[in-house]
Design brief:
With about 475 residues, the chain is mainly beta. The protein has three helices and 40 strands. The protein has a single domain, classed as 3 Solenoid (Pectate Lyase C-like), CATH 2.160.20.10. The strands form three sheets. The chain has a 36-stranded parallel sheet that branches. Strands 11-12 form a two-stranded antiparallel ribbon.
Length: about 475
């Protein structure tokens, strides 16, 4: 590593040792073929003062008693720090709770929750702006959010009732997101805990050169739409060492329609994270209005999910050059409102509406991935868009049933062009409307519970260029089914 680059990185991120930086460089070499730019490379030539100026929010009138609205005082401290220049630090001292509505963070500052400080979301809609977010930043540069404190979204207080059938809380008309950063450059979020988000937790919109490191998210599993981390139209993003529990997708790369002006999403690296969710562990989509390229998910432990590894193409953008590597997962059924039907791995290209001009999924590699699931591995294009150039290498899946929800289903949502929930037998691996699919050294096993709708180890329909060297697996019911069925 260039010593000047290492020095600049250490000045900016003091908790990262030279040894850790060298390890990070070695990891990035493994994904260099994707062209993904690590966060540290974006820091070359940038420096910050080594002794930041500190702005204690108590000196600006914050009470920190959990009852007084402190957002005016916090905003005064933020504005004063920004006026003092890059490297200034806003400190929220520990042993206090700071009740706040919307805060606008500024370029060049560090917003630091010291010790056990808690930023407590106000439950009043009038304390927020139209963006309905607690922490915001717009087109800032050099912003840091750090500390060991937590940001408490008080999710239960934004719900109206618990739906016993759907097994989730029903949201009220107003509920904020915890952090929305839009059009930011050179952004880092490190060490803090997000707690009980009422909606999306950390939404990155049109941002470049981003590091999210060692962040903990503890949302309630039965609160809908409480995504963990959502890079949306972003470039050069590294998400690492995070521990996430949430009711919706844990880490999901998007290209949403309202922010299409920022272009597609590309050069995103997610690694060494522990995830628990009722939806997808690591995912691309469903919002794919722009192209999503060069994404790598690796060394993640998906301890529970509705789907393990997921690509859901539903719009006009295309998804290309994606790697899922060294991932462990568990995928299971949940109640009907939750998306996902326990699919182990699910790559689907399905138009959102009959009028949608659908993009394509192509160039995806799945390597050294293992898991236990209640449903199939799916590689499923459609008549309008065939999936192409997919390689599975050393992928091992065990299918079993351990929940009591109705099975023999696939989840195609969101779509009005095809059945949203499709009744279909569950083979170990199912491929359809696809070209040039390689299943190398893949294995399918079956658990103790094998319902009648568990079928072949491998089933394919309307495919070309399918190969499966060293594929292992028998049918779930070998006395009446073939291990491999190609139609």
């Amino acid at each position: 590593m260039n010593p000047d680059l290492c020095e600049a990185s250490e000045m900016l991120l003091p908790a990262c040792s030279r040894r850790e930086l060298l390890k990070s460089a070695a990891r990035w070499a493994a994904v260099g073929a994707l062209g993904i730019v690590p966060f540290s490379r974006a820091l070359a030539g940038r420096t910050l003062p080594s002794l930041p100026r500190e702005f204690n929010v108590l000196d600006f009138g914050a009470a920190g008693d959990g009852a007084t609205l402190d957002s005016p005082a916090l905003q005064r401290a933020i504005d004063a720090a920004a006026g003092a220049g890059p490297g200034s630090r806003v400190i929220l001292p520990g042993a206090r709770r700071y009740l706040s509505g919307r805060l606008e963070l500024r370029s060049g500052i560090e917003f630091h929750l010291a010790d056990d400080a808690e930023l407590l979301a106000s439950t009043r809609a009038e304390d927020y702006a139209a963006d309905r977010a607690l922490l915001t930043a717009h087109e800032s540069s050099g912003l840091r959010i750090t500390g060991t404190g937590r940001i408490n979204g008080r999710s239960r207080e934004f719900m109206t009732r618990y739906d016993q059938v759907g097994e989730w809380w029903v949201p009220a008309a107003f509920r904020p997101r915890l952090a929305v950063f839009t059009g930011c450059r050179d952004l880092a979020v490190r060490g803090i805990t997000f707690w009980h988000a009422p909606q999306w937790t950390l939404h990155l919109v049109g941002c470049e050169d981003v590091l999210v490191d060692a962040v903990t998210i503890r949302n309630e599993l039965d609160v809908p739409n409480s995504d963990g981390i959502d890079p949306d139209h972003c470039r050069n993003v590294e998400i690492r060492n995070c521990d996430i529990t949430c009711g919706d997708d844990a880490i999901v790369v998007k290209a949403t329609r309202p922010h299409a002006a920022y272009g597609g999403s590309s050069h995103i690296h997610v690694h060494d994270c522990v995830l628990e969710t009722k939806d997808s562990g690591v995912k691309i989509g469903t919002e794919t209005t722009g192209d999503i390229d060069d994404v790598c998910f690796e060394r993640c432990d998906i301890r529970s999910s509705g789907r393990g590894c997921t690509i859901q193409l539903r719009d006009e953008g295309s998804v290309r050059n994606v790697v899922f590597r060294e991932i462990k997962f568990t995928a299971r059924y949940h109640a009907d409102p939750w998306w996902g039907r326990g699919e182990a791995i699910s790559f689907t290209a399905i138009p959102r509406t009959p009028e949608t001009k659908l993009g394509r999924i192509r160039g995806v590699r799945v390597e050294n991935v293992t898991g236990r699931a209640e449903n199939s591995v799916r590689i499923s294009g459609c008549r309008e868009s065939r999936i192409a150039d997919i390689v599975f290498d050393n992928v091992a899946v065990t299918l079993d049933r351990w929940t009591d929800y109705r099975g023999g289903l696939w989840d195609n949502r969101p779509t009005t062009a095809y059945p949203a929930i499709e009744e279909h037998p569950n083979p170990g691996v199912h491929v359809r409307h696809a070209d040039n699919v390689v299943l190398r050294r893949c294995r399918v096993a079956w658990g103790q519970n094998r319902p009648d709708y568990f079928t072949h180890a491998l089933e394919a329909h309307d495919v070309s260029g399918l190969s499966y060297p060293d594929f292992q697996g028998e049918a779930a019911h070998p006395d009446r089914q073939a291990a491999i069925h190609i139609a």
